[in-house]
Design goal:
The complex is a heterodimer of chains A (133) and B (353). Helix content of chain A is 9%, strand content 42%. Chain A has helices at residues 3-8, 10-15, and strands spanning 17-21, 27-28, 46-50, 54-63, 76-83, 88-93, 106-116, 123-131. In chain A, a hairpin with a 6-residue loop joins strand 7 and strand 8. The longest helix of chain A is centred in the first third of the chain and has 6 residues, at 3-8. Chain B has 353 residues and is of the alpha/beta class. Chain B folds into two domains: 8-174 and 318-345, Thiolase/Chalcone synthase (Peroxisomal Thiolase, Chain A, domain 1, 3-Layer(aba) Sandwich); 176-316, Thiolase/Chalcone synthase (Peroxisomal Thiolase, Chain A, domain 1), CATH 3.40.47.10. Chain B is 34% helix and 22% strand. In chain B, the strands form three sheets. Chain B has a nine-stranded mixed beta sheet, with helices on both faces. In chain B, strands 3-2-14 form a three-stranded mixed beta sheet. The longest helix of chain B is centred in the middle third of the chain and has 20 residues, at 207-226. Chain B is globular. Chain B starts with 7 loop residues before the first strand and ends in an 8-residue tail after the last helix. The chains are: A mainly beta (133), B alpha/beta (353). The interface between A and B is medium-sized, with 21 and 26 residues.
């Protein structure tokens, strides 16, 4: 990941900033500039919306062959989460007991390290999911 | 030191990573009786951060909870100070990343603090001054660390991870900070040179001329200035590098076990350095009754102590139903690990590639 790209996406990665269609109320993450349902009606009405960070697991998968940044954590679990706002977000599941992972599990988004460029490079942070306390 | 206008804690939150390792596990690797070591230190286990946790992530979690309890949005925060001796970057502030993550940027001032284990309480004092002077309405002060002892060193049994955040403001206070006193000297008890991974310490020199002189000196001076006695306080929390130092200082000063027990978390989670006193104070705020007086004294090597006299207000009870977990609830998330996993997580084994 390049530094400029990471920097541009900081708000969406740290805070889960998406957009809400001012016409129909549908929430999108990652943000998009036009609502696919309302099209022209949504122009100039796509307002910033913070995804509060709670939701339920709809799918999950265990990854055994990690990408380099995740090698210390392999095997790890990726989840797709239906957020309370109605959008779907994908991320790593952390701080869980393996036997308790399942569909419908309630999770919250937390800020974690996603990786780093190198030992002397930039550290990338972003959201992951963990079971609600 | 007394502020001219009322200041205090408007919200607070504390977080401790869930992994735990026992002194027994650590000792076994080095051919030492870890259980005896743990008993001598008064430590039954210590917290270990996951490989994707650091001072930024710990501070952010604590700050989000503190903000939630305060009922404020991030854009109402005028300053963020993060005190730590394990900031992830040598140059690039933790406070800006925390500010972005809680939505406080860009209209705020920020800086990272370092003063061994008392950088978090120095951050509280800074926010008090900015709020009381009217320069800002609210600020956030954080103390957090992911500290490490060199493998095999005595510090390895205690150095742990955690942190707490406080929204400091002038209105809707959960607890008023009525007074603060500091004591500062040049004392070479503990240090880490730039570029070194692990700290060095002056062995026995860390006790009497360092910890006890400052913690007891600062606490006594503050009580003298206030005309108060240990019995005037419902709770007290002192910096806790191990389970023994704060209890010995308390005993000599005239505080009882009952006054100390709520804020004494070191026995379960180890020494969270800059997080220690902030977490202890957060645990006290979780159970304090309106009108309770709380005494807080931090300690940072090098060396200095910040003392605070805090009084819980009637609002303290209301925030307990807001869904933010208490420190005791946070500590319930415990997952025990062995030394191999611990070494892997703490990067003690440098993996190639
Ligand atoms: Zn629409």
């Amino acid at each position: 990941m390049s530094i400029p790209r990471f920097w541009r996406e900081i708000r969406q990665r740290y805070k889960g900033i998406g957009v809400e269609c001012g016409n129909c109320g549908r929430v999108f993450f990652p943000p998009r500039s036009i609502c696919p349902d309302c099209r022209r009606e949504s122009l100039g009405k796509m307002n910033e919306r913070e995804i509060v960070g709670k939701g339920k697991v709809i799918t999950y998968t265990e990854v055994h062959e990690p990408m380099p940044d995740f090698r210390m954590q392999a095997p790890y679990t990726m989840v797709m989460v239906e957020m309370d706002e109605g959008v779907r977000m994908t991320g790593q599941l952390v701080d869980f007991e393996p036997e308790k992972v399942g569909y419908g599990m309630e999770v919250e988004a937390v800020l974690r390290k996603l990786g780093e460029e190198s030992p002397s490079g930039i550290i990338y942070y972003g959201y992951k999911f963990r079971p609600c306390p | 030191m007394k502020t001219k206008t009322k200041v205090g804690i408007r919200g607070y939150g504390g977080y401790v990573p869930g992994f735990r390792i026992t002194p027994r596990e650590i000792g076994a690797v080095w051919g030492k009786d870890g259980e005896m070591m743990g008993a001598a230190l008064g430590i039954r286990g210590k917290s270990v951060p996951a490989p994707d946790e650091d001072v930024v992530t710990i501070s952010t979690r604590a700050a989000r909870w503190a903000l939630e309890r305060s009922g404020l949005n991030g854009d109402r925060i005028g300053a963020i100070y993060v005190g730590s001796e394990s900031h992830p970057y040598a140059v690039k502030p933790t406070s800006t990343m925390v500010g972005a993550a809680i939505g406080a940027t860009p209209h705020m001032t920020a800086a990272d603090y370092e003063f061994a284990c008392k950088a978090g309480t120095a951050a509280i004092q800074t926010c008090m001054g900015l709020v009381a002077s009217g320069m800002i309405e609210n600020g956030i002060a954080i103390g957090a660390d992911t500290s490490q002892g060199a493998p095999g060193d005595a510090l390895e049994y205690s150095a742990s991870a955690g942190g707490a955040a406080f929204v400091i403001g002038g209105e809707r206070l959960l607890a008023e900070i009525k007074y603060t006193t500091s004591m500062t000297t040049d004392t070479p008890d503990f240090w880490r040179r730039e570029g070194q991974t692990y700290p060095s310490h002056g062995g026995r020199f860390t006790g009497q001329p360092a910890y006890f002189k400052h913690v007891m000196g600062c606490t006594s001076k503050m009580m003298d200035e206030l005309g108060m006695e240990p019995s005037d306080f419902a709770h007290a929390v002192f910096h806790q590098p191990n389970g023994k130092f704060p209890m010995n200082a308390a005993k000599k000063l005239g505080f009882s076990r009952e006054q100390m027990e709520t804020g004494l978390l070191v026995t379960r989670i180890g020494n969270t350095y800059s997080g220690a006193v902030p977490l202890g104070l957060a645990a006290i705020l979780d159970i304090a009754e309106p009108g309770d007086n709380i005494l807080v004294t931090s300690y940072g090597s090098g060396a200095g102590s910040d003392g605070f006299y805090i009084e819980a207000s009637k609002n303290i009870v209301k925030v307990r139903e807001d869904g933010v977990p208490s420190i005791q609830e946070v500590l319930r998330d415990e997952r025990h690990i062995g030394y191999a996993e611990y070494a892997k997580y703490r990067d003690k084994i440098r993996k190639g590639g």
